[in-house]
Amino acid sequence: MHIAERRAGDVLVLVVEEVFVGEGSAGLREAVARFIKLGERNILLDLAMVARIDSAGFGEVIRSYTDIRNAGGHLKLLHASERIKTLLSTTKLATIILNYDDEDAAVRSFEQSTEGGGV
Question: Which of 25, 91, 102, 111 fits a disulfide with 57 by CB distance 3.0 to 4.6 angstroms?
């Protein structure tokens, strides 16, 4: 798995650039753990280039969300596929792990989260 990183204001955008299945999905866990240690608290996970996701990959999204929340931060999704949206809805996580189709709106949502109004 390859994860590119870039900044959008105070938000770290992690762009997953490959399939998100099996053992390959552990790269997300490692990246999030590294950025938490570096003090990152606002992470936007861009999944636009994720062609496939399995239960292990979806589990890593949930684990990453939990890890960043436990560190006092926020993780949100950008450009999740219909499959991921369906999984979020089916597992009742769609209201907790938020997904955006517009990067600017996603970045602005972090400002609202830190003001006590978001998740």
Answer: 25
Q: How far is CA 93 from the centre of its chain?
A: 13
Tell me which amino acid residue 34 is.
R
The span from the CA of 114 to the CA of 109, in Å, is 9
pTM: 0.88
Q: What is the pLDDT of residues 46-102, one digit of tens each?
A: 999 987 788 888 888 899 999 999 999 999 999 998 988 998 999 999 999 999 999
Looking at the DSSP bridge assignments, the partners of residue 4 are 15
CB burial class (10 A; 0-12, 13-18, 19+) of residue 4?
Answer: exposed
Q: What are the tokens at 66?
A: 């939990």
Residue 66 CA to residue 75 CA, distance in Å, equals 9
Nearest to 59 by CA among 96, 19, 88: 88
